[in-house]
Design a protein that fits this description.
The structure is a homodimer. Chain A is an alpha/beta fold. Chain A has helices at residues 21-33, 58-67, 85-92, 103-117, 122-133, 161-167, 180-183, 191-197, 208-217, 221-227, 248-254, 261-268, 285-289, 305-322; strands at residues 14-18, 39-43, 49-51, 54-56, 138-141, 150-153, 158-160, 174-178, 200-203, 232-235, 238-239, 242-243, 274-278, 294-298. Chain A is globular, with a radius of gyration of 19 Å. Mean pLDDT of chain A is 94; it is low at 1-9.
């Protein structure tokens, strides 16, 4: 930390481990309080799946669309003003069309598919999309290898995360989450380098199980974080005992983690230095500190870009105080 | 002909050999003067090509869209009111986007691609599309095998017909047309049966070289037509010494056929019985009759659905007079 030469400090990246909507909103705040070109998002690809013949990468695309200022704000995913001619037409022709991919969104996934067929890597393609759409921070997939996250339900059914999440509506009865594919994947080009060079590593307020979990499961990534001299600060995705959005409760319970800011802090404790959580959970501070973590208690509800920027600023301050 | 039992006459089909725009307009006329459920279009698939990762079948789709009343009238192809988000987005991302496929049009081609991957045949898929879109006549691909029509230019370049036609703008310098793929293809399910049962076989006013040529090149189709007792009547695609639309001149010259109603009549003479052509070419009638063909001289410019219906009526009358 303190051994890094100060004069090159500005170009050392802020690395953000990132899932989908929550991470995207946090990153939009982060680029308002740090130079956007210094930010590198390492994004979960455990949600990636083929739909309608194209490679859909939900988390990469949400992050890209949000940082490019083109996300559909009301849906929280997809592109503002996008249409749904493709899925509606496929629906009429008898295809399962529960995954509501917009037309331009589809075209981006088609670009990804065509480029993959032509031999390009997922990282290179993610960079093409973010440049064309106009997002400044670097956006890296955690891996270029297929890393499908599988969910096992207590009734014995096993399914891809998107099937669990969207088709099934995230039912409660999760037995376990299988990150086996990520556990044998290789980090994408640039991932380990970014972590090694980081001046701070931020864990976005994303699902610990199916967003942050897969990133850490990729061999080499957790090791690189442990080796990095940069402070590692996580933002709790749990506020007042419930996730801000998404199926974190079901999934945390599924892996035996208490659904609270404290539960997630315990889950992350082995590899983080600091923890940012909401004032609604202030009574947990002493227990979280007792884990050996530095803390910041703040308003962590990102109800606006300003609120997200304040949360990001608190997170960066905590990181800097540890650097 | 006269040996066919009269009592089953109504259910014996009118088979139409069909290319794209010209055929589609003619067929729209035909279904106004004959029971639509009696019409079977056997459609050229030599123009089929993969674009943007999907199987595009231009002639099948033009015919389907036109008979379903959904064609973009001003373009002559594609769907009325369709948008172009997919190709425009791909264009921005650096893909060649000279083939202007609309979004819903794309979705139909995506359906075709997904169904082909799932093991369905092109004929079955064409039927799914025409039923969903609401076209009554049966629409059969000439073959389910890949039959790309290749064009050789005098400068030595060889290209797929769509590249010649759309990307290159149909240049004059055609050395020859290669129907080699069609020459080793199998007729699609239903094609030979429809011809064998036909009460009339109509050759739509389509390009003789690249629309009708590929259909006849598929082994078994010309033989089935020759064996059929039904009268075979062709409609000239040449009016006043020029094609109504498309690159027929370049291509006819490329295979050594005179660009005139007479030239096409000579080209078709070995296998047709009757020939319908435009009043602007009335002075050619004695020469066409001298080929041994029955003739009808009429207004063959399909400037409206009514005009197309009149042309179709004249064509059916000629066929019936020969039956």
């Amino acid at each position: 930390m303190t051994t890094a030469p100060r004069e090159t400090g500005r170009s050392r990246p802020i690395v953000a481990l990132s899932g989908g909507v929550g991470a995207a909103r946090f990153l939009r705040g982060l680029v308002r309080v740090a130079p956007p070109e210094d930010v590198v998002a390492i994004v979960n690809t455990g949600d990636d799946r083929e739909f309608y013949g194209v490679h859909v990468a939900p988390d990469l695309d949400i992050v890209t669309y949000t940082l490019a200022g083109q996300v559909n704000e009301s849906l929280g995913y997809g592109l503002e003003g996008d249409r749904f001619e493709i899925v509606d037409t496929l629906d009429k022709l008898g295809h399962p069309a529960w995954f509501r991919l917009g037309d331009r969104d589809f075209a981006h996934c088609l670009h990804r598919t065509l480029r993959l067929k032509a031999g390009a890597g997922l990282a290179e393609i993610a960079d093409e999309l973010r440049r064309t759409l106009g997002a400044v921070p670097r956006i890296l997939p955690m891996s270029e290898d297929p890393c499908p996250t599988l969910v096992d339900l207590v009734d014995g059914r096993r399914m891809h995360f998107e099937d669990y999440m969207i088709r099934e509506g995230a039912p409660d009865a999760v037995a376990s989450v299988d990150l086996g594919a990520a556990q044998v994947a290789r980090p994408a080009p640039g991932v380990l380098e970014a972590i090694a060079q980081a001046r701070a590593i931020v864990v976005c307020p994303s699902n610990p199980v199916v967003s942050i979990g897969p990133i850490l499961a990729v061999p080499g990534i957790a090791e690189a974080i442990a080796k990095s001299p940069a402070p590692v600060v996580a933002v709790s995705p749990i506020v007042g005992g419930a996730p801000v959005k998404g199926p974190a409760s079901q999934l945390l319970r599924g892996i035996g983690v208490e659904v609270s800011a404290l539960g997630v802090a315990r889950h992350y404790q082995p590899w983080i230095d600091g923890y940012v959580f909401d004032q609604r959970d202030a009574e947990l501070e002493s227990e979280i500190k007792a884990l050996g973590l530095e803390t910041r208690v703040t308003d962590s509800m990102m109800v606006s870009p300003d609120a997200a920027a304040r949360l990001a600023a608190a997170t960066l301050e905590l990181a800097e105080s540890e650097a």
